[in-house]
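Technical annex, item 7. During the second reporting period the consortium partners agreed on a shared format for inverse folding records so that results from different sites could be compared directly. Each record opens with the tokenized structure and is followed by the designed sequence. A conforming record, contributed by the partner at site C, is shown below for reference.
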């Protein structure tokens, strides 16, 4: 399963990428600095099955990227995990309504993220 990490903080992208790369079922791991770059990567490799994205980013934020992804039927089966400091009930509902499959509130630890990724394997 190929994955795409979208976050404007390079150290976070690298940390998630490093940990995903250790998982047996993860193939190629791509990184993008913002939602616009994330969409470009997705168009280049249509075999991405998992996206882990931050919400707040420049250019195109994570939620707007998710909405654009979900508008395209060829990307309907991509599993999307949103990582954000936004923890209000209304924003979680907004994320799920717009097509986010799972949600992690910052601060989080990498073990929590890896458990969420393991859940993806059971759906594929």
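Designed sequence (site C submission):
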């Amino acid at each position: 399963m190929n994955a795409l990490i979208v976050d404007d903080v390079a150290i976070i992208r690298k940390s998630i990428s490093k940990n995903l790369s250790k998982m047996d079922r993860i193939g190629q791991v791509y990184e993008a600095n913002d939602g616009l770059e994330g969409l470009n990567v997705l168009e280049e490799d249509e075999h991405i099955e998992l996206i882990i994205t931050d919400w707040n980013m420049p250019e195109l934020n994570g939620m707007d990227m998710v909405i654009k992804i979900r508008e395209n039927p060829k990307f309907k089966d991509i599993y999307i995990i949103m990582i954000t400091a936004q923890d209000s009930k209304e924003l979680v509902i907004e994320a799920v309504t717009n097509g986010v499959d799972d949600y992690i509130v910052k601060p989080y630890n990498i073990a929590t993220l890896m458990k969420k990724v393991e859940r993806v394997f059971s759906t594929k």
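The longest strand covers residues 48-54. The CA atoms of residues 47 and 73 lie 14 Å apart. All partners now use this format for quarterly exchanges.
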